[in-house]
Amino acid sequence: MNDGSDIQFTTSLDGVSLDNLHGFFEGWPSPPSPRQHGEILQAARHVVLAVEPRVPRVVGFITAIGDGVFTAAIPLLEVLPEYRNRGVASELVRRMMLELDGLYSVDLVCDEHLLGFYQRLGFTPAHAMITRNPRATNHG
Known about the structure:
Elements: E1 8-10, H1 34-43, E2 46-52, E3 57-66, E4 71-79, H2 88-99, E5 105-107, H3 115-120
């Protein structure tokens, strides 16, 4: 198993193909397809990828959307199961926060069991409202 030490991080989507985007969104009731995943990465204002260069494949990613001036939101942070608990997610967040440096606010919504993870990275708990439509992905 990989200890995460040879993972490379990049903000470039160059060389990323749909074949590199399998295994994400574990446990989601209606996960995006690899094609939709690629579209998500292309459409995000900021992306940081964790890449296993020997395979090669994407093993983690984080996206941010926002106005580019004042605020941003981090909607997605995913690491493949076999690469979790190796610091990959923390490094993705750290690098994304450098990308977003200077903005007034960076918001994210997470499940309760992830609060401690994000607090250790400098986030503060807040109230949020959300709605989800699992039918919206259409598995296309």
